[in-house]
Amino acid sequence: MALLEIKDLAVGYDSRSVLNHLNFTVNEGDYLCIVGENGSGKSTIIRTILKLQDPISGEVVYGDGLTANEIGYLPQQTVVQKDFPASIREVVMSGLQGRKGIKAFYTKQDREEADRNMEKMGILDIADKCYRDLSGGQQQRVLLARALCATQKLLLLDEPVSGLDPQVTAEMYGLIDKLNKEGITVLMVSHDVQAAMKYASHILHVGDTVFFGKKEDYLERQLGKLYVNAD
Q1: Does this model's pTM top 0.90?
Q2: Which one of 19, 83, 145, 219 is separated from 115 by 20 to 30 angstroms, measured CA to CA?
């Protein structure tokens, strides 16, 4: 079943488009990687799907009862975000706010859900630590647990391993792959071509040439061969 349908979408800033006539579908269980050169509009697609900015034209259609505030989102981190003065538990539970709407208080079920997601990420035993005192890899685990609190269906990840060392990067990819195998659909922006080719079921390549389809078909195309071998 389709969770997202992108129809003739144009995205950009200040009425200036960076991508036009974009069409693709994300089905339940997919692991879609968005690849392409810097400035090609990858993160802009994510922000448009999340309704953080308006499309220039076209539409984003949500399926299976999904809404924009029920999508888990792990953005690229800024220096300010890395220094956020809150506990791990507080950061993770803030992921529930979009689904709760006007409800002001967390329930016992909310706290249990947050604990389950922290346990999945291996951070439950340090839940009371301050977020800004963590390593980069631990912070990304916290933000992934937070994103899981926001959704039962779809994760949008924007360069989730940026700045991490190789071992921590491999661990993060392993966690994301495990979540996908457990039924969470993944849409990930990545500069890491080799990881995209290892984990993705589908590829969206954006830039002067646009491709959307199964990873195997992408690797058969000249576009895919050139991009992968250039890495």
Answers
A1: yes
A2: 83
The CATH number of whichever domain residue 57 belongs to comes to 3.40.50.300
- pLDDT tens-digit profile of 40-99? 899 999 999 999 999 999 999 999 889 888 899 999 876 546 677 899 999 999 998 876
Considering the domain architecture, whether residues 9 and 59 belong to the same structural domain is answered as yes
Q: Which helix (H) or strand (E) holds 113?
A: helix 108-120
Q: Which two tokens stand for residue 18?
A: 């960076």
**Helix orientation angle between 108-120 and 136-150, rounded to the nearest 10 degrees:** 140
Q: Are residues 65 and 104 in the same domain?
A: no
**3-state SS assignment for residue 190:** coil
Which of 150, 172, 198 finishes a domain?
150
The 10 Å Cβ neighbour count of residue 206 is 23
Q: Residue type for 52, please? A: L
What range defines the domain where residue 96 resides?
Answer: 87-150
pLDDT digits (tens, 9 = 90+) for 90-136: 999 999 887 666 566 788 999 999 999 999 999 999 999 999 999 99
CA distance 199 to 176: 9
Residue 167 exposed, middle or buried by CB count within 10 Å (0-12, 13-18, 19+): exposed
CA 62/CA 91 separation, integer angstroms: 27
Nearest of 65, 76, 131, 130 to residue 99 by alpha carbon = 65
172 vs 105, more confident: 172
Compute the chain's Rg from CA coordinates.
Answer: 18
Give alpha helix (H) positions in 1-129.
Answer: 42-49, 79-82, 88-93, 97-100, 108-120
